[in-house]
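1st attempt posting a full record on here, be nice pls
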Amino acid sequence: MLDPAQLAALAAVHRRGSFDLAAAELHVTPSAISQRIKALEEATGSLLVRRGQPCTATDPGLRLIRHHDEITLLERTLSADLPNLAPGPATLRIAVNADSLATWVIPALAATEGFLFDLVIDDQDVSQDWLRRGEVVAAITSHPGPLQGCDTLALGKLRYRATASPGYMAHWFATGVTARSLSIAPALTFSDKDRLQERWVADHSGGDARRAAFPSHRMASSQAFVDACLCGLGWGLNPEPLVASHLAAGRLVELVPDTPHDVALHWQFTRLAAPALADLTRAIAAAAGQTLVQKKTGAA
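the predicted structure (as tokens):
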């Protein structure tokens, strides 16, 4: 039988990156955290933590952390049938892309009680990797296929618009949006994982997304993307919900009129945790239905 306190210490060290921060989170001393990790490593016969700055869990450690998270959620489900257990709110770690967080996810989280959310913010193209490694119990991802032991729910498509200020357009695209002008006009990129601008350039310049080259500012903030476009710093793919009012007022314009770029999103979660996540899954689906572009169904 694994010791829950030892598993909690392992999860805290990995997620906070140090023994001191893990101790502060669990309200014990760093020495107690060290003793728990050592005891767990001796019990499992495996190295569970790579000591460093930050400390990180090994593959066996990640598997134990996933077990810890699943047990915590199962106990929360059990409390629905045994109210006298009266557990506190469970910490729920999920991976979310920044644009979804900025446009539609927060209301879903607010509508779900009983959790403290620990959000991992990462690109929708790679958020599934967090679920694969067992570091989160659910993820909003662009990958439709569920991982082994997971279920998936199609949410709809987040619509983007390639936007810039009128002044920026007059300066950089005075003769039109062409392969040449796109290769020299400064763009905006969220991070090295962000491929949205590359794909849009490839679609609208006859090029290859793998070879699309253009100068770009880097800023890891959805709202900063909008502000940078408004100020004429660059052009970028912005979620339609964030720029619809600016487009309507003429503060922003599309680089090429009526050229939306849609990104399909999916909610994936571990099957074992599905009962505990049921309320959140319903809230996620409802919020997505109000904001994301939904697939049209034909008449019967």
